[in-house]
Amino acid sequence: MPGTTDRRIDALLTLLAENTTIVISGAKIAKEIGVSRQQVFRWVEKLRTLGVRVKGHPRTGYHIERVPDILAPQLLSRRLSGTAFAKRIHHFFKEDSTNTIAMHLGEAGEPHGATVLAEDQTAGRGRAGRSWLTEKSAGISCSVLVRPPIPPAHAPLLTIVAGLAARDAAAEELTAIPDIRWPNDLLVRGRKFGGILTEMHAEPDRLHYAVIGIGINVNQSKMPAEIGDIATSLRIESGKTHSRLELLVRLLRNLDRYYNLYLTDGYAPILRRFAEVSSYFRGKRVRITTARETFTGTTAGLESSGVLRVTRDDGRGTEAVLSGDVAEAD
Ligand code: BTN
């Protein structure tokens, strides 16, 4: 596919990352990945511009000073073996949007589990036509293609499934307990550190494929001014840097587990888990903004499809909110 990271750069990254304590000669690298020493030199230069700290040169050998936290497919694939996401990992250094690519892959017949990753996105997309801002190699921009045997009306549950997977993965990195604001906002101490955008290709009664796009702010040391009040990163919260690779491995392993649980046992265990970890599940005072109106009310659980139920303050009963913005109300 045009733009994907050269498989041999991937091999070089893997080789360097797996030999962090030794000096490895340019000739050995060249032999192992099947390119010339000059080519190894050029790629090492490229990796340096990406922040990978490699000491040395072709004659003395290379020594990696800092393990590159690049989401290299080979490394990931090994760590994801046994999950649906191990086999087809498409990595890009820079692309417009991983969701857009994954939707094209779905159209082209790519199998269930295909995963698209970008170190940076130039046109990351958020919910409701908003944009999603990223910083090179600071966050996770990941989209997975799934082909679930469910009706399109149940697709909101895929967002819930992914939200749980990402929330649990991030919880291990934080001391504060992360929350999920229905449907897709990952929050810590009231600020958003991640979001999910699920898109699908479907007929009224048949879902052909869906793309679950997950964005996590990981190592940004500060957020862009325009979202500084409402957004945060794991690093801002914890005061330390986090391995994106480890986080992504955990996230995708969780996603595999929750997704399979949903397909085998249905929505009930998913909703039970959501009720455990989301303060928005029941009894939360909220202001809902839909395309039609804004109203306040109190959350009253989720429907089996993943849609939020809200009991309105204006006496018009309990309503199923299919999509819209949810904010905490006083
Ligand atoms: C939101 O909270 O509005 C959803 C944000 C989703 C962002 C992710 S980053 C990976 C994937 N590619 C995109 O263009 N968007 C999603």
Describe the structure.
With 330 residues, the protein is of the alpha+beta class. It is built from nine helices and 14 strands. It has helices at residues 7-18, 26-33, 37-49, 73-79, 98-107, 156-171, 234-238, 244-265, 267-277, and strands at residues 54-57, 61-64, 89-95, 115-121, 139-146, 179-181, 185-188, 191-203, 206-217, 282-289, 294-302, 308-312, 318-321, 325-328. The strands form three sheets. Strands 3-4-5-9-8-7-6 form a seven-stranded mixed β-sheet, sandwiched between helices. A five-stranded antiparallel β-sheet has the order 13-12-11-10-14, with no helix packed on it. A two-stranded antiparallel sheet has the order 1-2. Strand 11 and strand 12 (308-312) form a beta hairpin. The chain is elongated and about 80 Å long. The model has no long low-confidence stretch (mean pLDDT 93). Biotin (BTN) binds next to helix 5, strand 5, strand 8 and strand 9.
